Amino acid sequence: MRKVIITDTTLRDGSHSVFHQHTLDEMKSIAKALEDAGVDIIELGHGDGLTGSSINYGFGLHNDFEYIEAVASVLTKAKLAVLLIPGIGTIEHLEKAKELGAEVIRVATHVTEADVSEQHIKAAKEMGLFTVGFLMMAHMADKETILQEAKKMESYGADVVYMTDSSGAMLPDEVYENIKYLKENLNVPIGHHSHNNLGMAVANSLSAYKAGADYIDGSLIGLGAGAGNCPTEMLVAVLDKQGIENNVDLYKIIDAGDDVLKPIIVNKGRELPRFNSDSLMVGYAGVYSSFMLHAKNASERFKVDTRDILVELGRKKAVGGQEDWIIEVAHNLANKDKIMQPTK
Amino acid sequence: MRKVIITDTTLRDGSHSVFHQHTLDEMKSIAKALEDAGVDIIELGHGDGLTGSSINYGFGLHNDFEYIEAVASVLTKAKLAVLLIPGIGTIEHLEKAKELGAEVIRVATHVTEADVSEQHIKAAKEMGLFTVGFLMMAHMADKETILQEAKKMESYGADVVYMTDSSGAMLPDEVYENIKYLKENLNVPIGHHSHNNLGMAVANSLSAYKAGADYIDGSLIGLGAGAGNCPTEMLVAVLDKQGIENNVDLYKIIDAGDDVLKPIIVNKGRELPRFNSDSLMVGYAGVYSSFMLHAKNASERFKVDTRDILVELGRKKAVGGQEDWIIEVAHNLANKDKIMQPTK
């Protein structure tokens, strides 16, 4: 069966779990363990992408360039990747990242905003970087929309286009249908990045492969905010069990999680990823996890259930930067309750 | 869409996680919260079934009859279920369980040993109990074998037959095909009970439903040994998201986990369920989790990787009671290594 290329994002998406506080030595030892286990592409840096380290998104212990330089010095085989969200990272940052050792760039936009990736994808391709278009919050769009946005990224020169389930809100059949549609209508390979909010990360990854995806993301022990990502070791176990070829050694990737990553996480006093009611509701409602804190505040203020606020925001397809909307939604829900139940 | 009947096994399969040490008040408060949330059937008792409390399987804080009586006193709507493994529990125990308030009995056997359930299923039916045949370790059999064993249980009078993935070793397509085959060839409704060793519990449950299953098991927060069971709240979230009818209120079942169960677990100093390398290997190899300790001991003694032992045991379809085999397997692996690598 056709081979899967595995990108591990422990050191980027998983950085959220440790508030971006890895030391350079920690990053190096985790990256080396990932490479030794056979991971193809290792993504690293601030959880919010290149130069995400800021007052807005939280300062990292080091900046991304220090991390890239440190990790590049220990890798001999695996490709070093960075994520760039246009508006946070710039083309100058990209050049510097390349200079220090980044070989893969993933340019990430909201699923309906591929337009904003044009400049960065083109620049990355000109620099000779392997370039991935990364469509986030894909559950908010139908397959035709996803395809049109993916086609834009393809036309800018992306080598691969990812359908990313940022809220862990998708179900296996939906992943299968969307990826199949992309596969039938694009020339570039397709990737999938999942989250485990509804417990579907591994199943969705398998669905994506079966529908034609060649690139799948994971993170060690599922490291990532809330319910976390698709655990790389679990992904490999399932691929191996199905006889699906990949470059990762199951025992070595399990050991990388147990012997290298877990002690670092525990030592930082951080939690191992596990679903809780918040992460479940993020997946159920299909909203940004960053809405949670705002929704909880609005819940207190307007005396409405946080969960109702999230569900309503999901229904309205609220996107990042629309946090003000949360107040309005909570206010309306509070008033609706009053109209519905006048005797209370 | 057709309705799912949800059985919650927090108080039975989840009992393993607390070494069967719930107080009567704890059992009552958890059961009441499950009933209030709308759970149809609440299973309780020792993790290894009726009268499992013993030197072999670990003594519970109370015996099953005390638990049944206590919980029956607080339930008004949900059905109280007990599990019985022939050879551990007897027909006399069944009578006593019924007398104290049990209304549903699940008679559990290895997937290829339905024969041993005949006496108990017939007796349960004569007593007027709602009777479930529960085929465990179903990943070890092909669909034709599962069907033949299920047909036996049906012929004894079972009201429902379950295909149970005791090791969390099954994948969604496999669950779909097996359940579909059962559905096409049995007259009784089909159920599915899953474990999360490969991260597939929720996806497998959804697959089971789509293939025709009417009964699905879960446990609050996924409570269960190792990676745990299908989390009931996650199951309900996914069913609701798909518009699949069920009697459980999502917010109430989430609150039951957060406000009632979690404080009890934390107070006992127990871990919330989460996958680890051991549970992953149990699912990957498809073996009884009780083999793990023996395999680790044999690994020390023969200097072979525990994981190789488990994989070999899975390949040989070793079943419970064959723990002696573990020594033999480890010994053979150690000698094979010597032959393969004579200079070591």
Percent strand of chain A equals 5-15%
The number of helices of chain A is 13
The chain-level structural class of chain A is: alpha/beta
CATH class of the largest domain in chain A: Alpha Beta
Unreliable stretches of chain A, pLDDT < 50, 5 or more residues? none
Query: What series of H and E elements makes up the topology of chain A?
Result: EHEHEHEHEHEHEHEHHHHHH
Which CATH architecture of the largest domain in chain A is right?
A: Alpha-Beta Barrel
GO molecular function, one term (chains A, B): manganese ion binding
Keywords (chains A, B): Aromatic hydrocarbons catabolism, Lyase, Manganese, Metal-binding
Protein name (chains A, B): 4-hydroxy-2-oxovalerate aldolase
GO biological process, one term (chains A, B): L-leucine biosynthetic process
Keywords for this entry:
homodimer; 344 residues; alpha/beta; TIM Barrel; Helicase, Ruva Protein, domain 3; 2 domains; eight-stranded parallel barrel; 8 strands; globular; 4-hydroxy-2-oxovalerate aldolase (chains A, B); PYR_CT (chains A, B)
Explained architecture:
The structure is a homodimer of 344-residue chains. With 344 residues, chain A is an alpha/beta fold. The first copy, chain A, folds into two domains: 5-267, TIM Barrel (Alpha-Beta Barrel); 287-340, Orthogonal Bundle (Helicase, Ruva Protein, domain 3). Helices cover 46% and strands 13% of the residues of chain A. Chain A has an eight-stranded parallel barrel, surrounded by seven helices. The longest helix of chain A is centred in the last third of the chain and has 18 residues, at 250-267. Chain A binds chain B through residues 171-172, 196, 198-204, 206-207, 222, 230-231, 233-234, 237-238, 240-242, 250-251, 254, 257-258, 272, 274-277, 280-281, 283-284, 305, 307, and chain B through 171-172, 196, 198-204, 206-207, 222, 230-231, 233-234, 237-238, 240-242, 250-251, 254, 257-258, 272, 274-277, 280-281, 283-284, 305, 307.
